[in-house]
Each structure stands twice: as C-alpha cells, then as structure tokens.
Amino acid sequence: MTASTGRLAVQAFFDEASSTVTYVIHDRRTRDAAIIDPVLGFDSASARTDTVEADKLAAYVEAQGLKPRWILETHAHADHLTSAAYLRERLGGRIAIGGAIGEVQQIFAKVFNLKGAAFPHGAAFDHLLRDNEVLELGGLRITALSVPGHTPADMAFLVEDAVFVGDTLFMPDVGTARADFPGGSASGLYRSIRKLLALAPETRMFVCHDYPPATRSAAWETTVAQQRAANIHVRDGVTEEAFVAMRTARDQTLGMPRLLYPAIQVNVCAGRFPLPEDNGVSYLKIPLLRGQPAA
User: Fold this and answer.
1) CA–CA separation, 117 and 98 (whole Å)
2) End-to-end CA distance of the chain, in Å?
3) What CATH number labels 2-267?
4) What pLDDT score was predicted for residue 256?
5) CA–CA gap between residue 266 and residue 21 (Å, rounded)
6) Whole-angstrom Cα distance, residue 169 to residue 253?
7) pLDDT attached to residue 198
8) DSSP strand pairing (94-98 vs 127-129)
9) Which residues pair with 33 in a beta bridge?
10) 98: burial class by Cβ within 10 Å (0-12, 13-18, 19+)?
C-alpha cells in the first residue's frame, strides 16, 4: 500500500509472521527516505535468521531510486528481530532510537547477567533521539515524540499529516499495547497516548502491528479522530484510572512474547548479533526460570 500527501509518500510492508508493519517514507521530490521498524526473519526452532522481508523492502527502495537517510526504531521490539544493521549495510542510512534505550539496555543486562560494558549507553546506534527533536529528510521534517509506557524508550514520528506510533496504539478495534514489560508503565502509556490524540483530528496514524479480529483483514492506517471516537481501550471519556485498571488486569492474562529473549538481545544492539565465540558461532542467552513443583 502506498499513501501520499504533499511531499510525503508512505509504503507499508506487512510481515505476517510477526504481524509487524514496516514503513518506508520518502520525500517525493528529493527521494530522500527513512525506514521505520524493519523486520529480520527468525525461526526459533532452528535459531536461523533470514532476510526475506528485508530484501523485499530493499528491492523497493532500489527500484524507486530512494536514498535512505535514516533507519528509525520506535523502540526495542520484543516480538521480532530488527533488520536495521543489515539494511544499513546494504542501503546506507543512520540507525536512530529514543535516548532512553540506555535504560532498557541496563534492565536487560541484568536479565542476561551481562558484565561490564556489554550494553554501554546507546552503543551500536548511530543517533539517540530527544523528545521533539527534528530530523531533516529532504524537504520533510520528522519530529521525534517521546511516548514511553510500553517501554521507557518508545518514540513516535510525526511527518507532515502522518504520525507513526509504534506500539503505543493499535487499530481502534484492537486497542493499545501492553505495559508490563520491565520499565513499562500503564499510567505512562495513557499519558503518551493522550499526547498523540491531542494532534489534529485529521492526522493519519500508522500503527506498527495489527492483530485483526476474524471479521477483517490486517490494516494499519487510521486517524486521530477515529482513535478518539472508537479505540476500545482509550477513546475519549476513558480516564487514566480506568485505563490503568483495565491495562493492568489485561496484561496479567498475556503470555510472554515468543521471541522476547532473542529479539531483545539483538534489538538493543541495533540489529547486531553477539560476537562469535572461539568456534565462530554467535550465541543468544535464555534465562532458565525454574517453576514450582506441581501440587
């Protein structure tokens, strides 16, 4: 799907395996481009990665004669691996993420018992974004908006009449992201969402995931007005207290994302794999959490 208004063109790529939407946006006049939330394929059974989806995206960029300037991550994803490092090597561009990624890195350094400078603050990313920082993209201006809650480092990207919201909001009939990851906050998520919903009602909103009900196909574009009127979790009139109670209760029923441990180890390092050991193989760590004996 391609959407264009003014100088901004938007192309979406939907990865069915992770229900993730990656976006390529570009200035229609200069062809300068940015890639938002790219996906690297990963089969957990074989621990094998693939670049099938990334190569589709790269082929589009090359066929359109686009010039990638930025590879933007809305946050360190827990449900898929990022192909940011692969795409930077193939296409160019600078990888950027919210400046609070250092907090996420330190949380997971403890989870994985990584010593010393395994996750130095912001290491592997080319640029750490500040709230309301503006990035130039040809004649377009990308405003980075800090929207913590799902994780401490979540960012949204406002470009012309469009905002790319990552995992803060889903389609109106799906609701909102969970807030129970380490460093997450349901009250913080509510305030971040209200910040986004304060944008002009006609602002086009592009989500990062869709988990559609059986009555419709996957979709990823809505508007601020539609979210305010119909979002099942946070439409107008839902108070922070009510949202936090709902979100907290709902999150307690959710299982851990299937790729949480592999994804986080790669994504907090901008898509770089752990250094190979002396046999030439890279390894990911998985904490062993021992359960209680059955009664």
Assistant:
1) 20
2) 53
3) 3.60.15.10
4) 87
5) 19
6) 19
7) 98
8) parallel
9) 26, 68
10) buried
Maximal C-alpha separation, the chain: 67
> Residue 141: how many CB atoms within 10 A of its CB?
12
Question: pLDDT tens digits, residue range 101-151?
Answer: 999 998 888 888 876 555 656 678 999 999 999 999 999 999 999 999 999
Helix (H) or strand (E) holding 5, with range, is: strand 2-5
pLDDT digits (tens, 9 = 90+) for 250-273: 999 999 888 999 999 999 999 999
* pTM value > 0.90: yes
Q: What angle do CA 218, 224, 227 make, to 5 degrees?
A: 60
132: DSSP letter: T
Q: Which letter does DSSP use for residue 170 in this model?
A: -
The DSSP string of 42-90 is EETTTTEEE-HHHHHHHHHHHHTT-EEEEEE-SS--SSSEE-HHHHHHH
CB-based burial, 105-139: b 16+ in 10 Å, e otherwise: bbbbbeebebeeebbeebebbebbbeeebebebbe
For residue range 7-47, what is the model confidence (pLDDT) as tens digits? 999 999 999 999 999 999 999 999 999 999 999 999 999 99
Tell me how far apart the alpha carbons of residues 19 and 14 are, in angstroms, rounded to a whole number: 7
Cross-strand bridge partners of residue 166: none
User: What are residue 245's phi and psi, to 5 degrees?
Assistant: -65, -45
- β-strand pairing of 8-15 with 2-5: antiparallel
pLDDT in tens, 213-229: 999 999 999 999 999 99
For 70-102, how does the pLDDT look when each residue is reduced to its tens digit (9 = 90+)? 999 999 999 999 999 999 999 999 999 999 999
Side chain identity at residue 144, one-letter code? A
Distance CA 126, CA 137 (A): 16
CA torsion sign, 263 to 267 to 271 to 275? Answer: negative
Provide the β-strand partners of residue 13: 22
Radius of gyration of the chain (CA): 19
